[in-house]
Design goal:
The chain is mainly alpha-helical. The chain contains 41 helices and 2 strands. About 20% of the residues have low confidence. Its main location: membrane.
Length: about 800
């Protein structure tokens, strides 16, 4: 037996010795010993131990000449800066000096540590460091500066405007190593300032393929939100049949290719006519984004592939969305966790565009090793992608699943057969024949689910249901599953008018076994008897006696639902004698002139109105019990996932997760870039120095648009701005006031504008529209073309 006191003393002495040794190494003049002491501290930090007591000793080595020592010092300070804020502030000067170090790693780590110190006092210093590193020649340092922007924003939100200016500058960075971090900072600081993306749109699209994986994900998320607000909706312009036709036409299988060759390899070999149709239906910039994102479908990162699938699902037209089929199928070869996420996204895509995966139905066949959550999703997908061309193979596979020993799996397979039959009416007869055979199975769960599936299909085909219902009625003695028997009773009662000989016999058999039925069976037997009595009336004494017997049995049943149903049907079918007598008395009083006023009747019925003769539902018993029931709408078990964005956690969980933001709706009218920029307060796409508008494709188009402005302005009264917008939108009074101004005032205002924009003034003089504006923004708007395409402004 160990002596605990001696053991604790030994541990304490060892800890003291280790502490002394680490302090000695940190205070040593040899870099090797310092490095050994820091490695011990970092190892203890990785194990979760608190080593904050060494903070003063570590800070002394912040200016070490060894690169490895300084790296470890930075890691340690970054970990304990919040706990030792006063001591951390002592090393700020050293970090500022390191921002000018020759080594890019030192510069980057210095800014990283400065931004990681959560002390609001140093936020101006961090801002200065960010501004300095933004213009650094090293892409790595600029990347760290982009990562520091959200940290500075969290530290001091008052710096938001300055940070937005930095982000707008960094969006022009041409390094693919940096741009992903810049977009991440954009999403965290100013996600609504989409006007900053206008001049960089095409550049971001071209840089997609060269970004790192997480940069691609961030960029595609941002470009998706941008596209949903800046372009018109191209989805739905072509039908599913047209999409399938174009899909089959564009896929040209080579000799050495697989049976299901990747259609993305042949997309570039499409005919010129198809590309022209595509350009007519889809905005050029949107088509350019989809084209640039297409190579990323070959990425090894599953999230990158899902991001591209997200773009094509929410942006691409029908004839382009088929390109994401095979890449998503490829992801199903990974671990089951990844399979579950991918299958959930496929369910959401298939619910909107089933033609994308209809040729890949074999990949959704259930394997014996598939867990339950993957098996259920595969069955849902099979039922949704079933078409006339593949339904035979899918039904053949589902019939094999019925032979499984797993009862739950068999039940879901039968339900899937019913959904396939309801989706494709041509296969309903064959599916009904197979389900009827399953109704004679020895498994009670198989029988119950088969009868339920038959009932749902027969409700959709009421004209062809008599033969099948007769066969089910004959097998009522062999079927012992309570749920199956209840569905048969319902079917016979619903079609009792077409079964004059079968329905009474079923009621006779049901009356014998009434006491042994479960709650659902008893309720359906009561409803069956009520329907037969309502149909036959008092002409059939046998049916009335059977129904009276069932009502008397249900009157003393233990289940209150059965007792309530019996009371309701007795009063409905045979009428309430007391109510009838009260109605006769009211009629006699009305004839004698002693009838009550309508207000008295309303008071007697506690505010409910009724006729003077009384309300007798027995007169409408046929309309109530024998009315046609609408066919049920069978929803998919995965219903609701299509409302969420593809690739999101909310789609996987099928509920809204904290932080989820739905995609913005498509604009109904093409947005105007100039108006958006004026509202957003961002930099305009008009280049004042060059005196040109970036939206104009060629100089001829610009001259044509400017000449149109001249003719429109000369034809009517001109405003002080001389622009087409002001002449069209301005009121008559405003135009008269502007035209009534003196020429001297207009010349003075023109001189003020010439001091800031000399080149603009020259162009205004050539166009004759530059007089009468004292504000720079109004001068720029005057030079803008009257109608400019948005796609050109992103080039």
């Amino acid at each position: 037996m160990y002596n605990m006191d001696a053991y604790l003393k030994t541990l304490t002495s060892n800890a003291v010795k280790l502490t002394k040794k680490i302090r000695k190494n940190l205070d040593s003049k040899y870099e090797k010993e310092k490095l050994d002491g820091l490695k011990r501290l970092i190892a203890m930090i990785s194990k979760g131990r608190d080593v904050s007591e060494f903070f003063p000793d570590v800070v002394k080595n912040v200016a070490s000449t060894s690169l490895e020592v300084r790296k470890l010092v930075y890691i340690y300070i970054l970990r304990y800066a919040e706990q030792e804020q006063d001591l951390a502030l002592l090393s700020i000067n050293t970090f500022q000096k390191d921002l000018s170090d020759k080594n890019q790693l030192i510069r980057a780590m210095a800014l990283r540590v400065m931004s990681g110190i959560r002390v609001p006092v140093i936020s101006p210093i961090v801002m200065l460091g960010i501004k300095k590193c933004v213009t650094d020649l090293s892409p790595y340092v600029r990347k760290i500066a982009a990562h520091a922007i959200p940290k500075c924003y969290q530290l001091d939100p008052a710096q938001k405007d300055a940070l937005i200016d930095i982000i707008s500058t960094m969006l022009g960075d041409n390094s693919t190593f940096t741009i992903g971090s810049v977009l991440m900072a954009f999403n965290q600081v100013c996600p609504d300032r989409l006007d900053l993306i206008h001049p960089q749109f095409r550049k971001l699209c071209m840089m997609l393929g060269d970004m790192d994986e997480w940069g691609q994900i961030t960029a595609m998320d941002l470009l998706l939100r941008y596209s949903r607000t800046q372009f018109l909706n191209p989805i739905g312009k072509t039908s599913a049949l047209t999409a399938r036709a174009k899909k089959e036409k564009s896929v040209v299988k080579s000799f050495y290719s697989d049976d299901d060759s990747d259609v993305s390899h042949h997309s570039s070999n499409s005919s010129d006519s198809s590309s022209d149709d595509e350009n007519n239906s889809v905005d050029q910039d949107l088509a350019f984004l989809l084209k640039c994102a297409l190579p990323s479908l070959q990425s090894r990162n599953s999230q990158v592939v899902l991001s591209v699938a997200k773009l094509y699902t929410h942006l691409a037209p029908a004839e382009e969305s088929y390109k994401i089929g095979r890449p998503l199928i490829r992801l199903l070869r990974s671990h089951r966790e990844n399979q579950y996420v991918v299958l959930n996204n496929i369910v959401a895509i298939v619910s909107q565009r089933p033609y994308v995966f209809d040729q890949f139905y074999q990949y959704f066949f259930v394997r014996s090793t598939d867990p339950v959550f993957i098996r259920n999703l595969k069955l849902d997908i099979l039922t949704m992608i079933a078409t006339e061309s593949n339904i035979t193979f899918i039904l053949r596979e589902l019939q094999e699943y019925v032979k499984s020993s797993n009862k739950d799996f068999v039940t879901q397979a039968i339900e899937a057969i019913g959904r396939c039959a309801s989706n494709i009416p041509e296969m309903t007869e064959s599916c009904l024949g197979g389900l009827l055979k399953l109704a004679y199975s020895k498994s009670e769960s198989v029988v119950a689910e088969s009868v339920i599936a038959i009932r749902r299909l027969l409700q959709q085909r009421p004209d062809d249901s008599i033969v099948l219902i007769t066969q089910l009625a004959k097998a009522i003695d062999d079927i012992t599953e309570p749920l199956a028997r209840a569905n048969i009773f319902w079917l016979v009662g619903q079609h009792c008018s077409q079964l004059p000989t079968v329905a009474p016999d079923v009621l006779r058999k049901a009356a014998k076994s009434f006491c042994s039925e479960n709650e659902h069976g008893k309720l359906q037997i009561l409803t069956l008897g009520g329907k037969l009595v309502a149909l036959e009336g008092a002409s059939s004494k046998t049916i009335n006696l059977l129904f009276q017997y069932v009502l008397n049995m249900a009157r003393y049943d233990l289940d209150y639902n059965v007792r309530d149903r019996a009371r309701f049907l007795r009063a409905l079918v045979y009428g309430d004698q007391k109510q009838l007598a009260a109605g006769d008395q009211d009629a006699e009083a009305h004839e004698n002139g002693d009838a009550k006023e309508p207000s008295d009747h309303m008071e007697d019925m506690s505010g409910f109105e009724y006729s003077e003769k009384g309300l007798n539902l027995s007169d409408h018993v046929k309309a109530i019990l024998l009315s046609e029931k609408p066919a049920p709408i069978q929803e998919n078990p995965s219903h609701g996932r299509e409302h969420y964005t593809v690739g999101s956690m909310s789609l996987v969980l099928n509920r809204v997760v904290a932080g989820y933001e739905s995609l913005p709706e498509w604009p109904t009218v093409q947005p105007d870039p100039s108006q958006e920029l004026a509202v957003g307060g961002g930099a305009s796409r008009y280049d004042g120095q060059a005196g040109t508008y970036r939206g104009a494709q060629t100089l001829d188009k610009f001259l044509e648009s400017s000449s149109e402005e001249d003719t429109s302005s000369s034809g009517g009264e001109t405003d002080s701005d001389g622009s087409e917008e002001s002449s069209e939108e301005g009121s008559d009074e405003g135009s008269e006031e502007n035209s009534g101004g003196s020429d001297d005032d207009e010349k003075e205002e023109g001189k003020k504008g010439a001091d800031n924009h000399e080149e603009e003034e020259e162009e205004e003089e050539s166009d004759g529209s530059g007089e009468g504006s004292s504000e720079e923004e109004e001068e720029e708007e005057a030079i803008l073309p009257a109608a400019s395409k948005r796609s050109n402004g992103r080039r």
